[in-house]
Amino acid sequence: MRILSVGQLIxxxxxxxxxxxxxxxxHFAGVWQPVPxxxxxxxxxxxxxxxxxxxxxxxxxxxxxxxxxxxxxTVYLLIWFVxxxxxxxxxxxxxxxxxxxxxxxxxxxxxxLVLTARLSTGNARFLPRFATGTAGIRTxxxxxxxxxxxxxxxxxPYPRANADFPPAWIxxxxxxxxxxxxxxxxxxxxxLSGICARLSTYAxxxxxxLLTLACWxxxxxxxxxxxxxxxxxxxxxxxxxxxxMVAESYGGRAWxxxxxxxxGRADTAAPRDAI
Length: 275
Prior knowledge:
Layout: H1 6-25, H2 42-59, H3 63-91, H4 96-118, H5 133-151, H6 159-164, H7 175-193, H8 197-222, H9 227-248
């Protein structure tokens, strides 16, 4: 059984890694924070979350198991998305950073949606039509567009914080926040308008991967015992993997195509590299 794409490999590895990190530390990873400290048996839930994430991540590596693991992961992330991110944004709706968390968690949900759509052949009757086949790929792309808009809110309003974020060997430039945030906005607009969507999604996937390598790999190398650095690396890798899967869904389309039909190739429902 072979994996479907590089994006799936990155995404599955990151999800499994988050599970391993949870089991090793007894903590929830940042994508699920802040889990209320008053939650009964909080540590037990953290370990249970780690077991589930490891199992789902491992299941995403192959077509047969991924067809079941992907929709379960999508629903699981969606529950956390509503239960944790919603109250934060509701408590302080004018704080841009509170909304950017929706973008990060939403992008991970997009990764699950893409895999659910591509692998829905065997369990399509149990899934809503908008989540399967070409329709599901389009749903994931639109969701990624809005997630990209939200992720830009962690960059555009905070030029100083983004300038200070990179490791010392990267110039601390105020333009980083505007460059990265602007790229997210441009990608969202490109997907929704159908203008050069393949080009923009691939460019964003490359950008997110470079940020992961340049920043989070450096942070882990500098302080390998720091749990938060590993959390950041794994979450950033999961986001990059999801972005790659969205970009890959535009395969077969021209780089500068103007189209309103959205992503999705003829072989979306039955990939050539299936079992």
